[in-house]
Amino acid sequence: MSTSTRLLLLLPAWASAALLQTPACPGTAASNPRAAVRCGASLDPAEYDPEKGGLSTLTTERPEGSHGTGYRFMPLSSMSKEPAPALVCIAGAYPGLTADQLLAPQALPFAPAGRWNYHVLRGDVCSTGFVALPGSSLLDSHPNTVAVVCDSYSLGLEFADGQQHEVLALIDRSDIAALDASQHDDQTFYAFADEAGAVQIRWLATVPAGWRILGRLLYAQMPYIHRPGSAGGFAEDSDEFEF
User: Fold this and answer.
1) Is the dihedral of CA 189, 138, 222, 192 positive or negative?
2) Which end of the chain is more exposed for a tag (fewer CB within 10 A), N or C?
């Protein structure tokens, strides 16, 4: 009889079973070959400090009082991978906008998807201001876009409340038709400069003599307008209901 066998006979039954089932370190559990066994990762009670330790005792050192130390965690918010909100220069108000005013602002670069940009806004950059709009892949792909504040009536737009409202016309000044008039599309809305230099936002079958294309209308951003009488007997039917 071997020495190890004599030792097992002398131990209580529960201790013998524990010795047979506990794998040596390092190694893996016999019942699950993929279960890694962790050895030597004990925490010294004499060195434990809840104000400094936190997760850093098990990973890497972090600055004292920072996220994950002392078992304290900062509230966090992550950007989505969608296009970031866009800060668009305002060229002016329409009607009454001139071609020079439309072409004057220097467009700000849009932030990459999921990120943001920093801008130091000075009066000489865009004296007419900026407007923040929801980001979109369409805006991201047309970085030389400016906003024109329009009277909804001047664009032929109507709202459910029967009132006039301000609408933002997003004009891409780098459209190919602005560089080459032969690329004009009679199905597209453009910002034209007429013979007097005034801006006209519309479509034209042909570009009149003396007119030029300043940019293409990407889209008109309309505000949310509550529809009168839209509220019914159920909250879910309301335009302002949120789950």
Assistant:
1) negative
2) C
